[in-house]
Design brief:
The complex is a heterodimer of chains A (about 280) and B (about 300). Chain A is an all-alpha fold and about 280 residues long. In chain A, about 70% of the residues lie in helices and about 0% in strands. Chain A has 13 helices and no strands. The longest helix of chain A is centred in the N-terminal third of the chain and has 34 residues. The chains are: A mainly alpha (about 280), B mainly alpha (about 300).
Chain lengths: ~280, ~300
Amino acid sequence: MRPKTKRRIVNSVRYIFTILILVVFLFPAYWITITAFKPSSEWNAWPPHFWPYHPTLSNFFGGSSVSSIEGILPFLRNSLVVSTAVAVIAAVIALLAAYSIARFKTGGMGLAGWIISMRMLPPVTIVIPLYVIYAKVNLLNTWTGLILIYLVPAIALGVWILITFINQIPKELDEAAKIDGASNLQTFTHIILPLSLSGFAAVMVLTFIQTWSEFLLATILTSNSAAQTLPVYLGRFITGYNIAWGALSAAGLITMLPVIIFGIIFQRYLIRGLTFGAVKY
Amino acid sequence: MSKSSRKIAILFILPVIIFYLVMAIYPFVSMVYESFTNLNLTIPHSGQFIGLSNYFAIFQDPLALSSIDFSAMVIYIAVPVEMILGLVFAYLIRGLKGEKIFRTLFLIPMMIPGIVFGIAAQMIFNYLFGAANYFLSFLGIQPVAWLGQAATAQFVIIFLDVLQWTPFVFLIIYAGLLSVPQDLIDAAKVDGANGWQAFLHVEFPTLKPLIYVALIIRIIDALKIFGKIYMTTWGGPGTATSSWSFYIYKVGVSYGWDIGYASALAVILLIVSTILVNILIRFLNLGEQLGISKEA
């Protein structure tokens, strides 16, 4: 066999396997998406419909809170408020801390390790004492309560990413500014801040994505539409034996779409954040 | 360090320290304390000090032991599958036309909230109308009650974990592959190495630390598995798919607010994951990355 022919065959086989694997891995997302546009007669059709035969928007605007997601707005609002607040606050606090650690080695390995371990904390271990404390200080079922606990992993992630960003800013710039008579604070606001803006944005996007998807803490610390986020709304949607699969999928679609879009646009930061900078992508 | 530098260094780190003292250390201390008490939110005036009783109780609690078993199962089945599939996919698409599109598409599962995966699984693995049973019918296999039997329910949870997290392993390995200089591989081939030998002696040594990092992060995260279980099997049937995290949730929250016992379970989970995090930090070569020497 000629080498060229052989390579063509090998590549075709690779394509076939790649596409097979992708079909399996993307199938759940695909199923959520199509079911969101299926009328109720198609939700549990046999054989299953692999695309909506009669596409409809009734799962989104059906007029009732059981068979459509008309009632989703307060939860969407809660998710937006909590995730945005966490993103902004985490990025600010993390930038300050990252500057201190990256430039002045504050706390050394011990502090850096401590902060990284906050990102890894299993949420279920912290939520029980937190519930008791929140009950005492009236933070249950509030935005503030959720924001505070979500800041724990978010700040850790932010510090981590921003340290790697600040380390890329040449120290000579700081020193030049100092020779020109700038104070430490001025060096920070005029050099570090503008040059780490892309890192700052990365932290906001990443922490937004993570906060948006969180379920365990939200489901325990909130109790109604005043503070419940989208994943909790989803988790509570299943009631009784007649599950409104179309509406549930529509809610699922709204929950996953923003994170997927954000995630694709900001892939490289996502990777850096998820792997603690182990990968320069 | 000048005096003003020290001032700003401390001023800037202070918010983080204060925040973590309040939000993490205080709950942590109170959790450790509660693990030595019989605090139960449904029983008035509970909370007496009972020493190590909660810890001893864990070893006689079949539900606790089976939940640790299932968590271990996720780790020793799902994680190796994720590692191997991630490696395979990285090699599969490398150098293919459309590589970037495949890569981006493969990242999507990682971004989907676990709870949404759970809903998809409820439909796909449904006994009556699920696509999984439809595919099996082509092979002449009778419909399976996926979520109704221990072995198949465990399979579903592990399958979902593989779908969601193989992309993560893939990415770490793929990025690592990109960093292996092509000349090194070419040089090895000139010296007569075949593809497999080039992988074993040139690429694998570069990838090894990254594979460890991926492995440890996956193990730590596998201990947290919760949303998918909550949404699909609720730990059942029986206790077949109740993970360690999920069991803590059941004891501490949904079945009776037994804070003392749940805290003891949580303390042990925390110790296990802290050990893993410390191993991870060693592999990340933290000191070098931060420009901080180990003595500092």
